[in-house]
Hints:
Blueprint: H1 2-23, H2 32-55, H3 58-64, H4 68-72, H5 78-99, H6 101-110, H7 115-142, H8 146-181, H9 192-203, H10 206-218, H11 222-227, H12 238-261
Amino acid sequence: IMAHAGFIAFVAFMFIGINAANRYMGFDPQLIIYLYILMCAFQMALIMISTPALTAGSISGERERQTLDLLLVTKMRPISIITGKMVAGLSIVLLMIVSSLPVFAIVFYFGGISIGTFLKMTVFMIVTSCMAGAVSILLSTIIKKSMISTVLVYLIFGVLCIGTLVGVFLYYGLLYSRYYALNITTPFELGILSKIFINILLSINPGVAFFSLIENQFGMNIVSDVISVGSNTILDNIWIFNIIFNIVVTGILLVLSSKFINPLRKK
Length: 267
């Protein structure tokens, strides 16, 4: 927790120091928005890295220590065990977020960022970490080794963050090649099914959803400028669909985890 808060503070003071040195007249308060985005981006990355490490060994670690059977013979229901492990892991993530509040107070000192804006970003990070924790716990119930389950969680989120973007750009490239192969000179336009497919891929991407929320908060066009082509528009509120996706997936995975850990389940 101290390392997390210290790293966020280091990023903030480096940003302020570098910009103040370049301007010779101190820090420009207009840059505070970019400082906020930078701090949120690093906080999001640290949470995504920390959550699997905290939860991927929750069940498999009990199995390795040969204490899982003792846990299962208690009066606790399987879903209670799973949710307890989930809360135990995410409580540290919450402490990491709380520990960074004094650093984020720098942003509020300069102004330009409201409490509501920060709370919205915090809720988004917590929901994303819950989904990461649910994936980690499910793999922990299925796989016996904590190291293997941890690596698989990082691979899954690598696919979500990078694989979906690669899939979108490959799909764009395929459509471009087919479009120009027919010698069509009209502006490139996606069909309705293609738009739905691309927006679904983008909606499950935590990174795209993060920058979509930044767009919503500051009126920028980060996602649409990078990904949209011509008149093909991308959903304006991808972060909302991502939150809904994360909540649904979290609930489903927790129920599945309780089924896998239940010693009375049908083989």
